[in-house]
Design brief:
The structure holds two protein chains of two kinds. By secondary structure, chain A is an alpha/beta fold. Chain A is built from 22 helices and twelve strands. In chain A, helix 5 packs antiparallel against helix 7 and helix 7 runs antiparallel to helix 8. The model of chain B has no long low-confidence stretch (mean pLDDT 84). The chains are: A alpha/beta, B alpha/beta.
Chain lengths: 593, 591
């Protein structure tokens, strides 16, 4: 459905040659195995070639020596046939065996490279690209590699060898008979190709209509509440039916035209079969070939047929293989985060003095988000970042944590520019609790230990107690060993936030970055969260994206953001006196009640 | 799966033609080897060129007829397939669009979408496969078998050997591999999950410098998956060599036996050649059938999911005409209302009673899970009460015709939901006959006119699917405008204001006041500032009413309400509010 339509849109390769080269170099470490298996495939194809010819010879011999049939010679030939097809089968298996391992290992390497890349790309990449985009490279594209790689390499070498071998043998048996097949069979391939191209048009129409219908379905189902509350059901149904009928029409056409290839190949194969029978029969009577040769020839014609259609279908598989590889390589070639400076500064004992020096920053060129911002935060200060939704409050987190670097200006911690430190060292100085309570699927304990891998269970429990979540965890069916998963209902949103607070406590960093939750938290939990926030920020330099007036008023410094800019900063009282945006914001919310 | 075959019924004669054409095509194709035997026996051996031409001409004729049969069957299988999926998809959609929230919730929206799209496509593909391949394979099998036996009865036992060894190979390999598929899927799902976590947790992972930990976790699954892939591949790859051996072996056997029978009857010369081809067809059709047996279970899963939808109907039955005359003055009354989800023991709402009058605003507060949202969703019958009754304008909602009840209600959901179209088409969604002036007015009240008039195309501006080209706050304002445009007697706001910043929230409520004169307004909200001016506030906790009254009354009497207010104000402000509340109480007492 949706994926199909995407696949078709994306099946185009931008740079086939380049991608192919890249593919070859990426598979280099397996070149020895691949070459061996290609040789095995060729050997298997060659040993398999002679069976029909020898069987035909057996018939001829029987025919010619009749009625005193030479069973000894025929028996010897039969044994040769058995030996040959057994060898061919063994070689074939050996070839597939090796390629299977290669393709499994190759896709494993690719998966590893993608996951590595994810951790090395700058955050900005993911802010610009949808997760689904990256995810589909890991799932869909890798899937294409897994299924098509091992087959294609072997199939192509097998097909080509068989094709050439069969042609040689056919020519050796009879030139006129061969010519008949050499004309008819490729003709059928050409005609089928033409039909496929013709059908493609209808196929695309079908995919587009399907896409339209699917998005209607998606829209109507997700908007069910609105449809119900406006009695829109019948109208939605009529609208759906209209597209559905269109789809059925497009579907009939695309199905029929693409299935046309079947009767066409069908008549061509049958005709070449008939032609071989007639012409072959006459040739036997003229004594230019023997009777067993027709029998052999009929089989060779069908063997000649198969590799041609296989090669034809291979090209489309190879196309999708290359398209998938291209998408993967494209991702792997994305520029990575700037490397950390060498040598880098380290801060041994952090006081927690943070200073912004004339920061200029923009996500997109020419749309500055922060202009010439400077402020000094003393050790232990509480800084509140406030502003309406969408004012870019997370920008501050991005800069502090070095998820992004400023265009100009710099941030210092205890006088050391963060740019001269390793990213991991900067990040290690901050504990971070976000509104988006990200927990991974694993036990509660594992999630808490995420703050510091070497934390003991005792330390973890201490942190949980301090974050008011110990009792909640204890009351879960398996306590600290309870599994948390995406769809688990056993933990509420508020409790999840408490766990992320505890996780930050386990890490015990010298400074904190917090994002207060706006909604979806019940009253009691809300109080618990506020209480633990209090404990977390106590004595630490902390930055809080604040929604609650109590937090804002208790802050030492307030940064007021609007449309991505820091428009004002100061303490609550100072800002009220300025009577600017903050005062307006404050009054509209609380004062005129 | 087979239950869905009833959708083929309206097309019975097309299916019949399809079967006949396929049979014809197969039969004509299979006559060819017999004719070839004839060429060998009567033409070549007897050196009769005229005979060869005559039989050859017959063969050409048969080949052409067979191709026509194939053409006809291609057309009809495409036709039946297209119609089948059209009807099936329409039925599924029709079922779902009339579902209520209870059914929507029990399936989940995402699952319903895949059922209508992916699953239908999957089933349709299988049906088309069955109509072409599954029909052809048994026909091929049976006709080839009969013809083989006819051409060389003494050799028929070779067929048995061929078929048995093919089946044994397939069964052996599948029984080794299929049990691993579930594990395989699990591991694939796990790599997806881990990758997703790496993406969604991007910032957290880097904040804690845990990139290496994540990689280790991923590589464990990655290695496991690789090992399994290699194992499965080793077994699956056995299939080709084995089948080659079987095919070659039977062909050799045919030749050997045929030759040794020559002394008995010289016609075996041609017959054994034809026979070998028939045996090949029989074995080939078994191979084809085995592919289908791998496909059908997969389609079966989809078919089952579709059947689940088709079996489920909305439990809510509406009256055709409203039974009784509703009051002219709107009102809502809850009488001891209970609600619990089917199959759930715990009541979400229990024993709720209140009256909401015209011209008044009734607000509902409470923590998450207190049931406030569910409660107001009972009014438009999105869910059905399990006990008690709800009266709208003096009449039970169960006595209303659907259009009558829904027509009285302007409902604004929690999330701003928009449909692709224009801004205008979205605002007049519930009031198709609204004039441009009315639309503009509704937008003005909803504080949406400002941003709309800044758009180049104003009210005709395009809204993309899911409203992704407008912000969350704008979406919410447009969905409020949609309700206002309906000019309803009853407004229901299901936490509709929380996506707005506080300033817009306040302005909007101010502008809404003149609109809602004489109407009943129900509001669910999180922010105290949104509801504190309400005429009546209903405080819910665990699905029960724990307080009813206005802001100051509740501050004096209801501890749950006090907690809520406290959590949203600073200590000083809370104290001020409490003092104010106490003086108000004294005033009331004194009066």
């Amino acid at each position: 459905m949706h994926n199909d339509s995407l696949m078709h849109g994306e099946n185009k390769i931008k740079n086939a040659k380049g991608t192919f080269k890249q593919f070859l170099s990426s598979i280099k470490r397996y070149r020895f195995s691949i070459i061996v298996s290609i040789i095995l495939a060729i050997a298997s194809a060659i040993t398999g070639l002679f069976t029909p010819k020898i069987l035909g010879d057996m018939t001829t011999l029987a025919f010619e020596t009749y009625p005193n049939i030479d069973f000894v010679t025929i028996g010897q030939q039969a044994i040769v046939v058995i030996v040959l097809f057994l060898i061919s089968a063994v070689l074939n298996y050996a070839q597939a065996f090796i390629l299977g391992i290669v393709s499994a290992k190759y896709t494993r390497d690719m998966r590893e490279m993608i996951i590595d890349k994810i951790s090395k790309l700058p955050i900005s990449y993911f802010d610009r690209h949808k997760f689904g985009d990256t995810l589909s490279r890991m799932t869909n594209d890798i899937d294409v590699l897994t299924t098509s790689m091992s087959q294609e390499i072997a199939d192509i070498s097998l097909s080509i060898t068989t094709l050439v071998g069969v042609m040689v043998i056919m020519l050796l048996i009879s030139v006129p008979l061969s010519l008949i097949s050499f004309i008819i069979v490729p003709l059928s391939v050409v005609v089928v190709g033409k039909i496929a191209k013709f059908a493609q048009k209808y196929f695309r129409e079908h995919q587009t209509t399907l896409g339209v219908l699917n998005s209607k379905i998606e829209e109507d189902y997700s908007g069910q509440v609105v449809i119900k509350s406006n009695s829109y059901e019948q109208a939605a149904l009529d609208d759906f039916e209209e597209t559905n009928i269109k789809l059925a029409k497009a579907s009939l056409k695309s199905q029929f035209y693409s299935s046309l290839s079947f009767p066409v190949t069908h008549i061509f194969t049958n005709l070449s079969y008939v032609a071989v029978c007639i012409v072959g029969g006459i040739l036997v009577i003229e004594r230019s070939i023997s009777i067993g040769d027709i029998q052999a020839f009929v089989q060779y014609v069908s063997r000649f047929n198969r590799p041609i259609t296989e090669i034809a279908s291979s090209t489309s598989t190879i196309q999708s293989l290359l398209a998938a590889s291209e998408r993967i390589f494209e991702f792997l070639d994305e520029p990575e985060e700037e490397p950390d400076p060498v040598p880098s500064h380290e801060i041994a004992k952090v006081k927690g003095e943070v200073e912004f020096h004339d920061i200029n920053f923009s996500y997109l060129k020419d749309t500055p988000v922060i202009k010439g911002f400077s402020v000094k935060v003393e050790p232990g200060m509480k800084v509140a970042i406030v502003g309406p939704t969408g004012a870019g409050k997370t920008t501050m987190i991005n800069l502090l944590m070095r998820f992004y670097d400023p265009d100009s200006g710099y941030i210092t911690i205890d006088g050391v520019p963060t740019r001269e430190m390793k990213r991991s060292d900067v990040r290690g100085l901050f504990g971070m609790v976000l509104q988006d309570t990200w927990l991974f699927s694993g036990t509660v304990e594992e999630n808490l230990r995420y703050g510091r891998q070497d934390a003991t269970l005792e330390e973890i429990k201490q942190a949980a107690k301090a974050s008011n979540v110990h009792h909640v965890i204890e009351s879960l069916p398996k306590g600290y060993k309870t599994m948390i998963s995406e769809d688990s209902d056993n933990i509420s949103a508020g409790e999840k936030q408490l766990i992320t607070i505890a996780r930050a406590m386990v890490a015990n960093p010298p400074m904190m970055i917090l994002d207060e939750a706006t909604s979806n938290v019940d009253t009691r939990t809300e109080q618990l969260i506020q209480d633990s926030f209090e404990k977390l920020t106590n004595g630490r330099t902390s930055f809080v994206i604040a929604h609650r007036l109590s937090t804002i008023r208790n802050s030492d410094l307030i940064l007021v953001m609007k449309d991505g800019n820091i428009v004002e900063h100061g303490s609550h009282d100072e800002l009220l006196k300025q009577n600017g945006f903050y005062a307006e914001l404050y009054n509209s919310q609380f004062a005129d009640n | 799966m087979f239950r869905l075959f009833r959708y083929l019924k309206p097309y019975w004669w097309q299916v019949l033609v399809l079967v006949a054409a396929t049979g014809f095509q197969v039969y004509m194709t299979l006559r060819l080897p017999a004719l070839m035997a004839e060429i060998i026996n009567d033409g070549i051996v007897k050196e009769d060129v005229g005979m060869i031409w005559m039989v050859g001409g017959k063969m050409i004729l048969f080949a052409i007829i067979s191709a026509i049969g194939a053409l006809v069957s291609s057309y009809f299988s495409s036709y039946v397939g297209a119609k089948f999926s059209q009807d099936l998809r329409a039925d599924v959609f029709k079922k779902i669009i009339f579902y209520n929230m209870t059914e929507m919730k029990s399936f989940s929206t995402a699952s319903l979408i895949t059922r209508t799209t992916n699953d239908v496509t999957q089933v349709r593909q299988t049906v088309t496969m069955i109509l072409s391949m599954m029909l052809r394979a048994p026909l091929f099998c049976v006709i080839s078998f009969v013809m083989a036996v006819q051409t060389a009865p003494d050799m028929s036992w070779i067929i048995a050997i061929g078929v048995v060894s093919i089946l044994a190979t397939i069964i052996l390999i599948m029984s080794l591999v299929i049990p691993k598929f579930r594990l395989f899927q699990k591991l694939v799902d796990k790599t997806t999950l881990l990758t997703r976590e790496n993406l969604t947790g991007l910032r957290v992972i880097r904040a804690f410098n845990n990139q290496k930990v994540e990689k280790k976790k991923f590589m464990r699954t990655n290695e496991e998956l690789t090992r399994l892939l290699i194992y499965v591949d080793r077994i699956l790859e056995l299939q080709n060599p084995f089948i080659n051996i079987i095919f070659n072996g039977t062909t050799l056997l045919c030749a050997w036996i045929g030759i040794s029978l020559l002394t008995k009857d010289f016609a075996y010369l041609g017959n054994m050649v034809a026979f070998a081809q028939y045996v090949g067809h029989v074995m080939m059709s078994f191979l084809m059938l085995s592919i289908l047996f791998v496909m059908i279970p997969r389609a079966n899963v989809s078919a089952e999911r579709i059947n689940e939808v088709l079996k489920t109907s909305s439990k809510i039955h509406w009256k055709k005409e409203t039974n009784g005359t509703p009051d002219k003055v709107p009102s809502i009354e809850f009488k001891n209302v209970d609600f619990n989800y089917p199959d759930a023991e715990e009541k979400v709402i229990s024993g709720v009673s209140f009256v909401a009058k015209a011209g008044e605003t009734t607000a509902f507060v409470g923590s998450t899970g207190s049931g406030k949202s569910t409660l107001i969703n009972l009014v438009p019958r999105f869910y059905e009460t399990t006990a008690g009754d709800i009266l709208v304008n003096g009449i039970s909602i169960k006595e209303y015709a659907q259009n009558d009840l829904i027509g009285r209600i302007g409902y604004v959901p929690q999330r701003g939901i928009l449909f692709s179209g224009t801004i205008k088409s979205n605002i007049k969604f519930g009031a198709p006959r609204a004039t441009d002036a009315e639309i503009k007015h509704a937008a003005e009240v909803a504080q949406a006119d400002g941003f709309i008039s800044r758009l180049p195309e104003k009210y005709n501006a395009h809204i993309s699917q899911g409203g992704t080209n407008v912000s969350g706050g704008q979406k919410q304002r447009l969905s409020i405008a949609r309700a206002i445009c309906k000019k309803p007697e009853i407004y229901i706001f299901d936490d509709s204001f929380s996506a707005l910043d506080m300033k817009t929230d306040a302005k909007l409520r101010e502008a809404l006041k003149p609109e809602t004169v004489g109407a009943v307004v129900l509001i669910v909200a999180q922010r105290v500032s949104t509801i504190k001016d309400a005429d009546q506030i209903v405080v819910l906790d665990g699905g029960k009413v724990v307080g009813k009254g206005n802001h100051f009354e509740l501050l004096n009497t209801c501890s749950v309400y006090q907690d809520i207010v406290k959590s949203q104000l600073s200590d000083k402000e809370f104290k001020d509010e409490m003092t104010l509340a106490k003086t108000k109480r004294k005033e009331v007492k004194n009066a």
